[in-house]
Amino acid sequence: MSRAERVTMADVARRCGVSAMTVSYCYNQPDRVAPETLRRVREAAAELGYRGPDPTARSLRRRHNGAIGVVLGEHLAYAFEDPQARRFLAGVAEVCRERGSGLNLIPTTGAAEDIERVKSASVDGYIVWTTVDTDPVLAVVCGLGKPVAVHGGPAVPGARVVGIDNRASARELAARTFAGARRPAVLSFPFDRDRRPRLETGPSPDAVAFPVTRERLRGIYDRLGDTGGLPVAVVARNDREDAAKMADALLDTEPDAVVAMSDQLAFAVLDAAGRRGLRVPEDLAVAGWDDGPDAERAGLTTVTQSLFAQGRDCALIALGDRAPKTEAAWQATVRTTTR
Amino acid sequence: MSRAERVTMADVARRCGVSAMTVSYCYNQPDRVAPETLRRVREAAAELGYRGPDPTARSLRRRHNGAIGVVLGEHLAYAFEDPQARRFLAGVAEVCRERGSGLNLIPTTGAAEDIERVKSASVDGYIVWTTVDTDPVLAVVCGLGKPVAVHGGPAVPGARVVGIDNRASARELAARTFAGARRPAVLSFPFDRDRRPRLETGPSPDAVAFPVTRERLRGIYDRLGDTGGLPVAVVARNDREDAAKMADALLDTEPDAVVAMSDQLAFAVLDAAGRRGLRVPEDLAVAGWDDGPDAERAGLTTVTQSLFAQGRDCALIALGDRAPKTEAAWQATVRTTTR
DNA sequence: CTGAAAGCGCTTACAG
DNA sequence: CTGAAAGCGCTTACAG
């Protein structure tokens, strides 16, 4: 925190009777500098307390920030609470480390200031974590002339979407889970940014603002045909404990098969089923998405996907690489929680 | 991702026959510009596809980045796995939001490239998450002439340490937990960056490289007097599940009171005790640190502290505020897991 | 192996 | 209400 005068390359150059650019070379291409010059420059730098090239000036000159911005549509605390969001960010961070890139977190809450904060980040590209179709930040980010990766959607011009085919995976998962069931039900992610937990009956997927959720619901509906009476419980967050109440409310409708939109939500259903003494899968079939480490242990039927890999893909896009060739991989992994 | 030519303020100025600085005023102090001029400038900007002031150029000119860097001594995935680290980061993020500041994550792994990554972050100040005394990144960060907050220590010249008095809190917690105990034991955070889990007997605190861990151990020793035979199990990470094995190893030594260095580790002990049919606190007294949401539910005796508040303090320091007046607050909260 | 010059895109007092 | 000038600290071809 020593707030010494700022020492610049020019100061160092002056001190040892050399040009500023030679000092620059000492830091950027030391091989091109005579050993004796290098030594003198380093000595002068040490004497003056020069701290090395200023990263901001360097970024301006190189027209390259060496950093990507990750736009989160939530308070950080919530984002980190979600195990899949964490896996995703870990994937992003891995690419950043490999490429020596920085990682700027930009939590947004829907406030007007979000726009300025997003615009004023000194980054070369952006990753937007799943958001609603109408999120105003989306258009702003895409209008910045920098590469943008959107995880999970929505699809917008100027951005690449990374994620699995949610509708197809839902179709297949519903086929497995609802096979032989007479009273299917769904435990769903939030429909909208308000995240109001509730129990609905046969809600229209069109009313769902989060594309991932909407597509999964559509996939489930594809399979089901008549969905007029389908109980759909909507949670506030992707959290096992937090979802306990809605899982209970859902089981109150006495379903015999539940598709939940994540492992965490599926566990919430299993927890609730356990409290009621229901046998799984005999009385109740349950399935989810993600296939995190706990899913295998619990024998959970789930859609296997790698948020880590998707995080990597997003980071590569934000860094300006050509996009990954294919959609993100997924597969339905059938275990013992379904019949 | 439209990679249009870059449009600058000068282009906009030229386009509508105005000086570049007037354009600048339109973005920074629109009140000082004649309404008609403002209109024309905005029109020209729209026509040209000008995206607003470049954040990097602005930062260079203003000598202010509007961002703080958070140095994590681990892969992101691990850092996020720790509930207290998440609370801490949430506190940091809250201040960032209030102040319109950016938040740059800088995970370090001990590699040589860490140094460059830390130096090349365009930030106004740094927060260093608890690290070992000898972490080379520490000296680098402190030599940058920017404010530095270190959470938990080590104390180094040029940085402010934020955290509780670990030794005093340990002394008090040990007094509560070991009261009437004949075979005390400790479940400890890692001693060193290698994070090798192991069971030791009366290890010297001086050998512990993480200051938080060292001070807590010292506080416990203060209370104990003779520690020659004290079983101390060391975990790899602050994670309830991960710590299960070492908790078991510790209970194999048949202690009747365990001080664990966090709620998570205390839960690991309670889990292990449950598996053995031990009664708490009759057969085994257990206590921890943090007082997270689960602690109250479990009736855990623990050291109450707010990592969120400490994250806020660190962020304020990194932003250049005078430091918080006092040390971080803590108190021993006695519940039912101790006698 | 080293230097002179230009310029990255912007903002800041200072005049007028 | 608007402009001319300087400069934030650095790097990049290009000469020599």
From TrEMBL, chains A, B:
Residue ranges of every copy of the HTH lacI-type domain listed in the record: 7-62
Top-level taxon in the UniProt lineage: Bacteria
Annotated InterPro entries: HTH_LacI, LacI/GalR-like_sensor, Lambda_DNA-bd_dom_sf, Peripla_BP_I
GO molecular function, one term: DNA binding
The UniProt record lists the keyword Transcription: yes
Pfam families tied to this protein: LacI, Peripla_BP_3
Keyword list, A-Z: DNA-binding, Transcription, Transcription regulation
Name under which the protein is recorded: LacI family DNA-binding transcriptional regulator
Organism annotation: Amycolatopsis nalaikhensis
